[in-house]
Design a protein that fits this description.
It is built from ten helices and ten strands. The chain is of the alpha+beta class. It has two domains: 137 residues, PurM-like, N-terminal domain (60s Ribosomal Protein L30, Chain: A); 154 residues, Phosphoribosyl-aminoimidazole Synthetase, Chain A, domain 2. Helix 2 runs parallel beside helix 3, helix 4 packs across helix 5 and helix 5 packs across helix 8.
Length: 333
């Protein structure tokens, strides 16, 4: 974030009028941001899905990350949660806690980032709050979505014998953070740039998520790392799992990084911020999964098998031998 300079910063209400009211103009639920709450009427026959995520400067984004990318990542990590539930995004609430002295232009760029992704994902601002903080900047977004009644995908529901699948590629974000912190210097500039972009701008699988409602038995998004989030799915479903590390989908840049240092499999299997969908599906669903992948333009690959709970969770190499991973995912505490 740019150096402090608050001389040109308007008061709270002027800030809301300039930055956020334009983001709510198309949403009747927002009541033009002139009331104390939004008013939302769920579509008949649907249930409402709510999710919330916070991003703190120095924890979830770097102080010199561009404002637009911070805003768009905030939006997308929440949309990723909705996608993994099979939900259609409808609107969102936003709390901005600006670090003391945040320049007005940084705030404006943040709002531009939100506007960009509102157009991409068809979602509008419904309300929120904006404050100033003496500590690091902090942004919290609550996303609202809908699913047909009784069809939300949950973490529970996987059964032994089912396949485990994941969308997109894994490890790019963790490797991208390493790049932004000065690591992976042996990679070419194009690969380094790609990985950094993947850390800053995840791709929520909204289109695929909605289609997976009729296929998946359990699902969640990969935010804390594949192994950690697999553990969450298995714990709620009451099952174990075998993950075939050689099947993990990698980008060209990810493969190049792994070729430089085989120990980066730890970051690929355990690093956070992928925001892909991990799901279980019964045998016989491969054709349906392939159609979802083709029709939504979302790569989906099988990476393992659901096992009985007594078998635990085991990553294996190409010969089927267990691999002991030291880092199983991100923890805040």
């Amino acid at each position: 974030m740019a150096p402090p300079d608050k001389a040109d910063t308007p008061d709270e209400f002027a800030l809301i009028a300039e930055l956020f009211a334009p983001l709510a103009v198309s949403a009747p639920e927002a009541l033009a941001l002139k009331d104390d709450a939004a008013l939302y009427a769920a579509t008949p026959g649907c249930e409402t899905v709510l999710t919330v995520d916070a991003m703190v400067e120095g924890v979830h984004f770097l102080p010199d990350d561009p404002a637009e990318s911070v805003a768009r990542k905030l939006m997308r990590v929440n949309l990723s949660d909705l996608a993994a539930k099979g939900a259609t995004p409808k609107g969102y609430l936003l709390v901005t806690a600006w670090r003391e002295g945040t320049p007005l232009e940084w705030m404006r760029a943040f709002a531009r980032g939100l506007a960009t992704d509102q157009k991409i994902f068809g979602i509008d601002l419904w309300g929120g709050d904006t404050v100033r903080t003496p500590g690091p900047a902090s942004f919290t977004l609550t996303a609202v979505g809908e699913v047909p009644a009784g069809q939300m995908l949950r973490r529970g529901g996987a059964s032994a014998g089912e396949g485990l699948y994941v969308t997109g590629t894994l490890g790019d974000a963790a490797l991208g953070l390493t790049v932004l912190q000065g690591g992976l210097e042996g990679l070419g500039a194009a690969h380094r740039g790609y990985l950094a972009d993947r850390y800053r701008l995840p791709e929520p699988r909204v289109a695929a998520g909605g289609r997976l409602r009729e296929i998946a038995s359990a699902a969640l998004d990969v935010s804390d790392g594949l192994m950690a989030d697999l553990g969450h799915l298995c714990a709620v479903s009451g099952v174990g799992a075998r993950i075939e590390l050689e099947r993990l989908p990698l980008s060209e840049a990810g493969r190049a990084a792994l070729a430089l240092n085989g120990e980066l499999i730890e970051a690929i299997a355990g690093g956070g911020d992928d925001y892909e969908i991990l799901f279980a599906a019964p045998e016989g669903k491969d054709a349906g999964i392939a159609r979802v992948a083709a029709e939504t333009g979302t790569p989906i690959v099988r990476i393992g098998t659901v096992l009985p709970a007594a078998d635990g969770i085991t990553p294996v190499d190409g010969t089927g031998r267990p691999v002991a991973l030291k880092h199983l995912g991100y923890r805040h505490f």
